Amino acid sequence: MQPPKSQVKATLLRNSCIKGDYFCAELQMEAIPQNALPGQFIHVQIPDLSHRVLRRPFSIFNVEKDTLSLLYKVVGEGTRQLSALAPGKELDIVGPLGCPFSPLPDKSIIVAGGYGCAATFLLAKNAPVKPLVLIGGRSKEDILLKKEYEALGCEVRVSTDDGSMGLKGRVTQLLQQAVNGQNWLAACGPIPMLKALADLMPSLNLKGELSLDKAMCCGVGACFACVTKVKDTSSPDGWRYARVCAEGPVFNAEELIF
Ligand SMILES: Cc1cc2nc3c(=O)[nH]c(=O)nc-3n(C[C@H](O)[C@H](O)[C@H](O)COP(=O)(O)OP(=O)(O)OC[C@H]3O[C@@H](n4cnc5c(N)ncnc54)[C@H](O)[C@@H]3O)c2cc1C
Ligand code: FES
Asked: CA 91, CA 114: separation in Å to the nearest integer?
């Protein structure tokens, strides 16, 4: 069962650039950190965004007592505004939202692309037997949280498209080299990466879950802005649209139609 969601006022404790366009924010708030499960997200009302009212979704990267951390990339107006906020600022937050990852079985692999490594961090943190973690990015500037996953006790391997760190190539190549008896995979990253993983997983005898990053409006299942195609044997066409915010963002890999 999903934990109850809350709407709370959060205080920004820290908000700093960790690398290039990537920032880490630490927020103090009631209820949400205690209820958050790995893979869930929060919907953030960014203050002072005068003409744009929609909340922005961010994965819950980490929680400690009453604090919750986000790892985010500046890609547009909302994230740019978020990156400019100073500690002490108050933000309106709704969460935790969405369906979480299943707990990891003993022989697991996490695959993360870019800021997708934020969505899978709590999953690795909670796992009694630590997963092998594969992190992919365009260049070394996009490889995040390697040390943090290692500090949890995970073995971490890296690939970059330009070869500036780890294996030169795609994270799917890294996965093909790395699989060694694991039977479960959990992943978050750009849609093309998730599609490539879903295509590859059957040949590597891997089952698992993928967390989708889709643009959202309401974030609570009311507007259908975030839909994705999933298999449905009860539908005449064999598929239906699922709302990523409410039925995901985590889906069984076998269920998704890319
Ligand atoms: C469940 C979920 C979890 C997420 N977790 C994180 C996270 O942990 N860290 C993080 O940095 N981002 C995360 N995102 C993406 C984040 O929500 C968007 O980057 C953000 O809303 C962009 O806001 P903006 O106003 O800066 O950009 P906008 O001005 O709205 O858009 C700028 C550009 O970004 C694109 N964009 C907007 N939303 C998304 C999206 N959801 N996915 C891909 N491209 C998008 C737009 O098409 C446009 O090209 C997550 C999204 C979802 C749905
Ligand atoms: S964002 Fe409104 S239904 Fe998902």
From this structure: 25
